[in-house]
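Propose amino acids for all 276 sites.
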């Protein structure tokens, strides 16, 4: 599956890909559990490099670290958030496709899509210190304080040892009893994981212990706001990182002209409607 650019209109018309239904007696008797419906309030907008095919974000020490994808164009960047200025950048080997990014202490771990290679960098030096190996595809990555949480485009979140990258567990993500597929970029916040859903304008909040979707964020037509600038050639929403102390997030997308600082707020309905 080539993860390249469908039209912008088609992306925002797409919904979550959900399949199957709960077959347990408990689920039948309890009925579907509704996720909280959330929208976004845009607090600030910052410049974003138009050549960035964004795959992962990390915020540390006032810097925004960004993983970009595509073979021959993948990179790791350290970016000044407010100006979009690239302070440092490292190019990946030409035959790999950069993917999710997570911080573990003083190191960064960057996935690749189909190469089975994860690069470990010094946070300050931005130099590769070692490589880790894994089977399957790499999509999103975050660190929950103990484990790395990884997505592979399916409905399953994998838990991995941050030192060895050994698989130590997994959980299936479900919304109202049905698996949620296309889990992409991840952000760990406390006991929750936030995940972009590829090809949609949605972010789900997941209780990492149970895999249950507890919140459904719709960012709306955020790129139509005044001051965003030229949106020709933009690709999907992808990229989410939490701003400690502000209770806000930075979100962006592939080739987007802006990074948005947003608050997630309840929508008037209070609970998420059926997902398309």
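Proposal:
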């Amino acid at each position: 599956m080539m993860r390249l650019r469908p039209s912008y209109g088609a992306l925002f018309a797409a919904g979550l890909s959900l399949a199957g239904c709960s077959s347990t007696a408990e689920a039948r008797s309890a009925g579907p559990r509704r996720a909280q419906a959330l929208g976004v309030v845009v607090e600030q907008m910052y410049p974003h490099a138009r050549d960035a095919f964004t795959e992962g974000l990390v915020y540390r020490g006032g810097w925004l670290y960004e993983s970009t994808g595509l073979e021959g164009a993948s990179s790791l960047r350290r970016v000044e958030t407010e100006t979009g200025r690239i302070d440092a950048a490292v190019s990946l080997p030409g035959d790999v496709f950069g993917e999710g990014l997570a911080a573990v202490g003083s190191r960064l771990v960057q996935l690749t899509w189909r190469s089975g290679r994860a690069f470990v960098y010094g946070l300050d030096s931005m130099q590769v210190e070692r490589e880790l190996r894994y089977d399957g595809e790499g999509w999103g990555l975050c660190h929950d304080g103990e484990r790395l949480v990884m997505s592979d485009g399916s409905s399953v979140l994998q838990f991995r040892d941050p030192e060895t990258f050994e698989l130590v567990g997994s959980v299936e993500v479900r919304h109202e009893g049905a698996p949620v597929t296309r889990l992409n970029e991840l952000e760990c916040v406390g006991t929750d994981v936030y995940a972009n859903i590829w090809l949609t304008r949605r972010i789900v909040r997941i209780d990492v212990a149970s895999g249950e979707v507890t919140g459904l964020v719709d960012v709306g037509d955020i790129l139509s706001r005044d001051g965003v600038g030229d949106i020709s050639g933009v690709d999907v929403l992808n990229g989410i990182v939490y701003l400690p102390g502000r209770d806000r997030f930075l979100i962006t997308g592939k080739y987007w002209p802006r990074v948005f600082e947003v608050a997630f707020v309840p929508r008037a309905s209070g609970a998420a409607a059926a997902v398309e």
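The chain has one domain: 15-266. The helical segments are 8-13, 25-30.
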